[in-house]
């Protein structure tokens, strides 16, 4: 076979184009600069436009390719009638979806352990510093806690929680943004597809909240059975909020803002969004969930509530690992905290002694 005399930059390709009810091969000459029309070898009259060539299906992997010394290539695209294997069949439509797969997979984390440790320390120090700065500012403005009303105290607590949340999250985002671009499932707050079976954030928030309620109730029953009485430390931690509960609409709104909005956003961003995700560099996702739940429970500084907080942390961690969306643990956390405040407020308005009920429960 004689070598072709065409320039080396040209590409010679055979394509199967439908004409009416039959398929004919058309010869197209492709250049680096433009596409030229050549007559169809079947009729000698019809031409193939460049736009039609671009719309053709890509060459299947079974099609042969022949290289010549002038870097010309001859490609063949064939119909099923040519006797050659066609493109692979489409995947079956009835395949089942592995719902639990996201909960077991790890995150692609770009930072290393020095960043993790320094960021956690920076968050703690910045939160303490923000609280100290706020106290200094309030004292400078003449605020006296002993002379303040209930509503004023509630407002100060809200401002303190807001400043701590803003500063701590700002520290985390300021440090981690230096590693961008990173995976889309890190620090993801996405309201789309809330009820999708595999990773719908609202659906799995409801599932996680249900299991958290059941697990915490069983844990409390077991602790009461083993100890014979409710842990006093748990009552004391709730007792700190008793003067503000049900006293006025302003104090109730401030408490809901603190416990139902600001605290869940801060804690879930720090513990689940950063710490748990970072731990998956060294541990499997289930182990990272358990470690984060331990740190989460200890961070509340209430040893008597450690079992319940640990169980809640496990539910929050697995729910987040399933959806890879921080809205899921934030919703569970917010519903849990807000539910406690609203229940205590309702009992207070009904005339019950909340402190006595907590001690007797």
Automatic annotation (TrEMBL):
A GO molecular function held by the record: endopeptidase activity
Pfam families: Rce1-like
Domain of life: Eukaryota
Membrane-spanning parts: 162-180, 201-226, 238-262, 274-299, 326-347
Alphabetic keyword roster: Membrane, Transmembrane, Transmembrane helix
One Gene Ontology biological process: CAAX-box protein maturation
Domain CAAX prenyl protease 2/Lysostaphin resistance protein A-like: 253-338
PANTHER family assigned: CAAX AMINO TERMINAL PROTEASE, CAAX AMINO TERMINAL PROTEASE FAMILY PROTEIN
Protein name according to UniProt: CAAX prenyl protease 2/Lysostaphin resistance protein A-like domain-containing protein
Lineage, top ranks: Eukaryota, Viridiplantae, Streptophyta, Embryophyta, Tracheophyta
